[in-house]
Amino acid sequence: MYSLCPKKNMDNFINRDVLLLSISMGFKIILLGPPGSGKGTQAEKLNDDLGLIRLSTGDMLREAVRDKTELGKMAKEYMDKGALVPDNVVIGLMKERITSLKEGFVLDGFPRTVQQADALCEFVDVDHVINLDVDDEELVSRLTARRSCPDCNVVYHLLYKPPMKDDTCDKCGATLYHRSDDTETTVRARLKVYRDSTFPLIEYYEKKGILVNVDGKGNIQEIYEAIEDSL
Ligand code: AMP
What we know:
globular; two-stranded antiparallel sheet; alpha/beta
């Protein structure tokens, strides 16, 4: 266990920099957790702070939907219902992206089934799996108040992490939108899919000895520090 909290003297700053560099060079992390647990927000912070590349299957699929590609047209039917896109499709998508990467990365939204996790370990060795734990009612309230950037994929929350200017992304200035699958009915369907298909991955990675549970409720920065401390 390493602690990455800011240290007081210069030696410790240097040590922290060396540590951050070694982490960002090759760390491979999975962020697990139900929709709305903060995977996107924390993956973004891991990218800003440690330089880990954020790979989000949801963002890739939404981009395909916006571009109206064949993949996008097919994926949209599943996404609109809150269902999972078939395993072979997302596995193919991620395999191509991951095997072309030399840097460390953080996976946000993949794997989501045991089949995806089995496929993933065929082409990469993951170092850490962080499971963000948040209860259902909190998730519904978070997702219905979530706003997303269509261009740089930063995620906001109208109460906990509002943009500085109404409906405008702080990072790139694009107009924020409310995802069509962030309505209460679709959110509840997504939570059921999570329980049935993704929840078993907690035990799957516990058995491999690489899972850490982090309380996903509360302050975004405190949750991030708990993640860093667990690395
Ligand atoms: P997310 O942005 O991670 O909440 O994902 C939004 C939607 O994209 C999900 O509800 C699924 O329909 C689809 N999706 C994202 N990742 C996966 C995955 N690993 N497997 C299957 N479907 C996925």
